[in-house]
Design a protein that fits this description.
This protein has 167 residues and is an alpha/beta fold. The chain is built from eight helices and five strands; from the N terminus they run βαβαααβαβααβα. α1 packs across α8, α3 packs across α4 and α4 packs parallel to α5. It is globular, with a radius of gyration of 15 Å.
């Protein structure tokens, strides 16, 4: 069995969908944001404030790269796609699923943008961040699921249908 790795913008539903997907497939579940928090002993927001975005991205890549996932659904942080080494490792033994959500829908979903721990420069909008990251999500994706207007359960059903025997 392979892993399923969820990528996408903050607010795309990676953690929520990941838990439901893992339960339905009888897989383990890992949220790499929680792995980072366990490593640092602090919130993502505090870590980003303390070490800066560039260093956070290096930390995120290192934390993901050192983990070995087996029969797991892995919910990555939205900025994980900046770490080429980690993404290539995840792709080696997993199917990468891009949970695609439009900037407008993301804006309506994200209520705690300043305390959530999003690796984005001050003054950057969600739309600008989306435009910066979307090409990276598309680069790594084996499967793209359009999540606008869909429930988490509907997205899980689409992932299982699309992944099928590729899992």
């Amino acid at each position: 069995m392979k892993n399923i790795v969820l990528i996408g913008m903050p607010g795309a539903g990676k953690s929520t969908i990941g838990v439901i997907l893992a339960k339905s497939l009888l897989f383990d579940f890992c949220d790499t944001d929680l792995s980072i928090q366990k490593t640092t002993g602090e919130s993502l927001c505090d870590t980003i404030s303390k070490i800066g975005i560039d260093e956070f991205i290096r930390l995120e890549e290192a934390v993901i790269y050192k983990q070995d996932f087996v029969n797991s659904v892995v919910a990555t942080g939205g900025s994980a796609v900046y770490g080429e080494k980690a993404m290539n490792k995840l792709k080696e033994n997993g199917k990468i699923v891009y949970l695609k959500v439009s900037p407008d829908e993301l804006q309506s979903r994200i209520k705690n943008i300043h305390t959530r721990g999003i690796a984005m420069k001050e003054g950057t909008t969600i739309k600008e961040l989306y435009e910066e990251r979307a090409p990276l999500y598309e680069k790594y994706a084996d499967i793209t699921i359009i999540c606008d207007g869909k429930t988490a359960e509907e997205c899980v059903d689409l992932i299982v249908k699309e992944a099928g025997d590729r899992i």
